């Protein structure tokens, strides 16, 4: 009797989780490896950062999803090396052999070599990022509440967002929602001094959606009091300011970096072919060019749809996860893998303050309806019944009462490593 | 016209919060100072540590409670110094004058000079402690799941609790509940290898309750598979073991330190009179012996009830908070403060696995009823409607499905600073 083929999946994001689940009944032995024991629901990170929901709600333990299957194992580890030729991965000094490999390691923040960005700007790509940004925002407000110097106070309350994609737009709108909820908690602080602005290097916002939706988004943000600077690049970030390529600068304690992502490729023996942003070039079947038993999916893969590169959203990774599971099943039965075809069911983006935009087939939507649809879709896709219920209740509470209740400064990330305690002047006068 | 008297309250625990709230309509200007922006609901820390509820549920933002009052301010700061003679407190290089001062800084873990305890044992007194302990417990289980060496695996799965007070008993029972929930998530791990034991230096558990309840608790823990060692002191904690005064030792990756607390007194100019455990000696009115405008309450104060020292539970601090607010009100009106009298409404302790103990008036309770009463009382006293709802739903979900869902390893506290990554052997064989 043959021993069953071994499939190793690296990365427990949308794509890797879906691939592992789809392979559960394939007869293969599956090992899923991730550095975290949880799957992070990235679309809701901005709500963690703006005190709307608890971080644990969007961090679903990987083992909860795997437990249905006896053929699946999980390993919490950092992958040190992948050897495509010898067909093994190295983790913690041990090698693990595979028959099939699915690379689903996703993407990471890319600071585009902007000086000071990696040190002083706040990314929003991991759960740790979201908690650190939450701590930073709340610490700035708390400091401002005891700061007598109006210049320093305004600096503490100035938030500049670099990047006009979905993340930049979401966090901008959510900061305005947060600002509106804070008045009752800070009766002695003038929250009109709180300023949010957004800079985007390209000519429009939400470049992956039709242009009129980007224009609507920019108008909406402006109406919310968020100046939008298009065709403006950040050239430097310091602890107290951000500088732009037009020579201007803004005194801001907090810069949110939502301007760049790059594929997070593990170390490999044989250099695979790369496309742009460090992404792996893949065949239409999502196999690597030279290794027929290695697949790359999600943000790691440079795949196409209707001749255009896919844009790195969750549905693409989910569909790819299912597709590679089917292709590996075909290979196990001696059939050849089939090309992946992306089915675009539409695209939504949330702005905040009860507005969103969307494109579903030929229909373009703006305002309240796509806002509600965005929330509905995301609560449905969120893994875990308990998390889904708690997020739904949090939204009902938060939007009905205009409250942002998760305002605990818990981690020391935002405070000790990036200290910003000014002296207290006249705190009681 | 006189300016209103200024009351400074240091510490936003049970006592300090209650004092500030009770003073809200007194006509005084109140400043509440705490190093955290949230009030920590200490009785439920053990549930955070054992993956039952989210840390944010029991960390209520101080400003949520203060917002009803215009005469109240909050300052997030570490108090550096208190000058009883000049009547001011120093924070971040600034002095803040007071007319009345309420010291409510509570208690902190006391390691009793046991070698290695402060470095290697895990305390359970702050929210950071609880998250660090949760990370440690879950990391140990995750490591054990990939450890082929049975000796090392058993060590990873051995948890020793030092201290037989309420905290030690709670965490022991909750670890058994957690163990029972883990089987479905770790099908390849034999959880019979997980061992929890408890050591107590005194002759009985729960020394503040009648002796039969302590005996019941010990029997119950033994029936849950938790050996209880009485009259046994921990003499040393190492990264891999714990040693006792009878010469024995246990190989354990995790030691929970629930064996000692001491008053957390801020630095003061004039040394106040101290009683045992660093607590401040107070008059029956809760005023300091030499400073009639300074009060000490909660775990910081050495107060008496029926000739016996109070035991440091939340109802004592809450009642004292109300009492000092009334006494300051009397002093403001030229009247003399009145002695504090503690009204003991009863006492409950939770063991876990549907058992608890309690004493209400002359009635002693054991088993399911005090367990349910403990949970009911604590969900009622938990601040914040949203938190109360989410904790209640978490309990319904957790106890009904025997699930401990908050199993995310999020902080790096338990992992990087106290590294325990063994090599992986035979992970797939």
Give a structural overview.
- Two copies of one chain form a homodimer.
- Helix content of chain A is 31%, strand content 24%.
- Chain A has helices at 14-23, 45-49, 62-66, 117-120, 127-144, 150-156, 166-182, 211-223, 314-332, 368-381, 385-401, 413-416; strands spanning 6-10, 29-34, 38-40, 59-61, 72-76, 79-83, 88-91, 94-97, 100-103, 107-109, 122-123, 158-162, 195-199, 228-229, 234-237, 241-244, 249-251, 254-257, 261-263, 280-281, 294-296, 301-302, 304-305, 308-309, 347-352, 355-360, 363-367.
- In chain A, helix 1 links the parallel strand 1 (6-10) and strand 2 (29-34).
- The longest helix of chain A is centred in the C-terminal third of the chain and has 19 residues, at 314-332.
- Chain A is globular and about 75 Å long.
- The N and C termini of chain A lie far apart (84 Å).
Structural class of chain A: alpha/beta
Low-pLDDT runs of chain A:
413-429
How far is the N terminus from the C terminus of chain A? Answer: 84 Å
Number of strands of chain A: 27
Q: Strand sequence of the main sheet of chain A, in spatial order?
A: 5-2-1-9-21
Tell me which oligomeric state these chains represent: homodimer
Largest sheet of chain A: 5 strands, parallel
Indicate the mean pLDDT of chain A.
Answer: 92
Q: What is the largest interface, and how many residues per chain?
A: A-B, 57 and 57 residues
Strand content of chain A: 15-25%
What is the count of helical runs of chain A?
Answer: 12
Could you estimate the helical fraction of the residues of chain A in percent?
25-40%
Q: Give the overall form of chain A.
A: globular
> What gyration radius of chain A follows from the Cα positions, in whole Å?
23 Å
